[in-house]
Structures are given as C-alpha cells and as structure tokens.
C-alpha cells in the first residue's frame, strides 16, 4: 500500500538498542532504504533515531556511519520505558513515530504499509504491524508447539485493543494533545507499550492492524530455552495484572477479582498440561504450561509484586 496524501508529514523511525551493535549494523541500512523509499513516494520527511541505553554508548559509531539520515541519542536512565519515552521526546516536532526493535528486520514495503494504512484508515491513534519469528540454530519442538513466539494476526483494518511496540506507528499529534507518553516509572518491568496503547483505546481512540507491514523477529539460541519462555510468560502475566489494577484503581475488590482469574488460569493450564502428558500431545502440554505460567504471573501482579522482565 503506497501512502498518497497532499499534506506533508514528518516521520521518525525509532530504534531502541542495548549492546546489540552487530544487529543494529544489519538493521540500519534497511531502515535508511525504507525511509528514502517512503520520502520518494509522497510528501514525507523521514528520520531514523537510534536511542542507545548503553552507558558505554556502543551504538554510537554504528549510527554515525549512516548520518545524516540516522540520528543518535544516548538515554542515560536504564530501562526500556525510559528509552521509549526518550524516543517520543526526540520526535517532538514530528507527526508520526514508528517503533521497530533492534533484533528485528523489516520486510519490503513495511514502512509504506504502516503509513498507507494510517492514511487509509483516517489517521487513527496507531497502526500495528505483524511480527513474524525466525529462529537461529536448533529449535525446541516443545517451544514451537506451545506457540511461545507466535503472535496473533488479523486482517488489515481490524481494530485491536492494545499493542506492543515491536512494530507500531503512533500519531504524535494525538499524543501531544492528550499529554501522553510512555511511563518512565515502569523502568525495566516492561508493559509501558501495552499501558500507553490501552490508555488510547480506553479513551475511544483507534488502533488499527496492518497485516502487510511485517517485521521479522530474530530469536537467538539463548531464548530457545523452556525456562526462558516460561519466565517470559510469567512476566507478561504480571504486567497484565499490574495494568488492570492501574485502570481499576488498585482496590481490594479488583485485586481479588484478578487473583481469582489468575488462579483459574493456573488450574486450567496445569490440567491442560496433564491431559497433554496423558495423550493429548506435545502442543497441548506446552500450551498448558504457558497458560499456567502466565496465570502465576497474573497472581503475583494481583498481589502487588513487581517483575522486572528487562532486568540486567
């Protein structure tokens, strides 16, 4: 989908990075090419901003090699939430902010797809693209069967309630009008993207899916580990509870409701895992453990405990 709109727009593509200089060196030339292609297709001015969260500034020489299209900034406060908030601040004069992770690569037409859908859908609050995993090295059939790295897909134009920032376009003019940014207070706990996007949709603004805008997520061998994926499911559950509590005001009734739902998930997950072991198959067993781990995280979150998914 090629964006075509008479009004000029300033676009910032943001990459948060932490000690992944080699992967960043692969990603940045692709982003430069897509930014140039977008500018050639319409009245756009596109800049790539690298937000480096490494105290040693390891990404600086990689970014400098692609100036002036790529601009480097160093965020001293540790944590992914601070990095995302810095990206919003660095794009203060732009109309659109697009996020992609430093361990991802965009498919052809990714950036034009996001902007094209944004215009075609009447400039919603955000456009969410597809994230497809690819695995380096030997994969674990249990992890694949459990769908630990698979993400949902929808037809283009489908409205969604929340999104991660792994492949996300945000309307900055709307964020500025609402006084919204990513919550730096979340530090390394994660969930700042879900919190922001859910805040937008709960206020009546739209997040729209674009299935053509695909990025490929490179899964390293270190993550092809059962304990790692279960810890991640646990962390996502804790984040989900924490966000729900925030919207509900954090009262006792909300905590009890969330705790009851979390216990039900744990029980259902353990039952599914047991049935899988008794003959239901590898997928049922793995998905059962995934559900139980997320439920356990939700329970911990409902009880007020924090889980730092991105701790170093």
Provide keyphrases for this structure.
single chain, 312 residues, Spore Coat Polysaccharide Biosynthesis Protein SpsA, Chain A, 46% helix, Glyco_trans_2-like, glycosyltransferase
Give your account of this protein's structure.
With 312 residues, the protein is an alpha/beta fold. The protein has 2 domains: 9-223, Spore Coat Polysaccharide Biosynthesis Protein SpsA, Chain A (Alpha-Beta Complex); 226-302. 46% of the residues lie in helices and 19% in strands. The protein contains 10 helices and 8 strands. Strands 3-2-1-4-7-6-8-5 form an 8-stranded mixed beta sheet, sandwiched between helices. The longest helix is centred in the C-terminal third of the chain and has 29 residues, at 252-280. Pathway: Cell wall biogenesis; cell wall polysaccharide biosynthesis. Residues 13-170 form the Glycosyltransferase 2-like domain. It comes from Microlunatus capsulatus. Belongs to the glycosyltransferase 2 family. InterPro entries: Glyco_trans_2-like (IPR001173), Nucleotide-diphossugar_trans (IPR029044).
In short:
Residues 13-170 form the Glycosyltransferase 2-like domain. By secondary structure, the chain is an alpha/beta fold. The chain is 46% helix and 19% strand.
What secondary-structure arrangement, pairings included, does this model have?
Blueprint: E1 9-17, H1 21-41, E2 44-52, H2 60-64, E3 70-74, H3 80-90, E4 96-101, E5 104-106, H4 110-120, E6 126-135, H5 141-146, E7 167-171, H6 172-178, H7 192-202, E8 207-219, H8 226-248, H9 252-280, H10 282-302
């Amino acid at each position: 989908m090629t964006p075509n709109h008479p009004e000029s727009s300033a676009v910032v593509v943001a990459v948060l990075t932490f000690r992944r200089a080699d992967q960043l060196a692969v990603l940045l030339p692709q982003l430069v090419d897509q930014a140039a292609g977008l500018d050639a297709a319409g009245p756009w001015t596109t800049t790539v901003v690298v937000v480096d969260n490494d105290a040693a500034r390891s990404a600086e020489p990689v970014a400098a090699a692609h100036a002036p299209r790529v601009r480097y900034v160093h965020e001293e406060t540790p944590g992914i939430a601070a990095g995302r908030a810095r990206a919003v601040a660095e794009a203060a004069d732009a109309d659109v902010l697009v996020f992609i992770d430093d361990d991802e690569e965009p498919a052809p037409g990714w950036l034009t797809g996001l902007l094209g859908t944004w215009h075609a859908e009447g400039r919603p609050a955000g456009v969410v693209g597809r994230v497809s995993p690819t695995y380096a090295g030997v994969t674990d059939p249990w992890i694949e069967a459990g769908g630990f790295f698979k993400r949902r897909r929808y037809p283009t134009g489908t409205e969604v309630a929340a999104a991660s920032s792994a492949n996300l376009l945000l309307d900055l003019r709307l964020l500025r009008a609402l006084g919204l940014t990513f919550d730096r207070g979340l530090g390394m706990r994660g969930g700042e993207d879900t919190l922001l996007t859910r805040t937008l949709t709960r206020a009546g603004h739209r997040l729209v899916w674009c299935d053509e805008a695909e990025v490929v997520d490179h899964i390293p061998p270190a993550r092809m580990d059962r304990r790692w994926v279960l810890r991640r499911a646990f962390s996502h559950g804790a984040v989900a509870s924490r966000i729900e509590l925030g919207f509900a005001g954090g009262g006792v009734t909300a905590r009890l409701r969330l705790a009851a739902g979390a216990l039900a998930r744990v029980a259902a997950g353990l039952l599914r895992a047991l049935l899988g072991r008794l003959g239901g198959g590898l997928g049922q067993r793995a998905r059962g453990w995934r559900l139980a781990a997320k439920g356990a995280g939700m329970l911990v979150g409902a009880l007020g405990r924090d889980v730092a998914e991105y701790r170093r």
